[in-house]
What we know:
Layout: H1 4-32, H2 38-50, E1 73-74, E2 79-80, H3 81-89
Antiparallel strand pairs: 1-2
Helix pairs in contact: 1-2
Amino acid sequence: MAKTSSVEKNNRRRRMAAQKAAKRKRLKDIANDMKRPAEERFAARLKLAEMPRNSSPVRIRNRCELTGRARGYYRKLKVCRNQLRELASQGMIPGLVKSSW
Length: 101
């Protein structure tokens, strides 16, 4: 089980990224538009740099929905490898059978 503080910090990052997504997109579009004057693009980059770091979606870490584990994460199922094996052994995931030979 991951530390509760790590999971909560990641949840705060998700909320902030969703909240500031429109503003970030608008500033990035201005900063990357080569048709605009250089001063305007530079000003947009400065405003983008002033935004909170945690508002960037790059800082969000994929974590297991059940345990909060950050490593061995399966995106399709949103669980880590350990929980995937447990759920597969219990027959909770349709179409997934634990292999044995």
